[in-house]
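Support request, please re-run this one:
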Amino acid sequence: QVQLVESGGGLVQEGGSLRLSCAASGRTFLRYFMGWFRQAPGKERDFVAAISWSGDRTYFADSVKGRFTISRDNGKNTLYLQMNSLKPEDTAVYYCAAATYPATEMTSYHSWGQGTQVTVSS
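Re-run finished. Output below.
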């Protein structure tokens, strides 16, 4: 497994932007399919975005398509989530996660970070 640590969360006004980072330990980062999930208070954890091992394929939830971008730097063992045009409904704890195979289902991911809070004010 891989250890993951998110950063970059915070408070932002509606329409603003944030970039989340997820630092991974170990030398096997490039072997993992990576994803971002989020969980709002009282709600289930939902898929946000995912990216293939090489970064050539990306996947997004309909709710963030066109506003969020996922990328990775395998040389730096880091995953990113660029969030633009943020809305109050994007408020949640954001988690990065690693999977062995391409997946958007939470149950397919075996390693998780501790999460970073994103709050969007109206």
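The chain has a mean pLDDT of 96. The longest strand covers residues 92-99.
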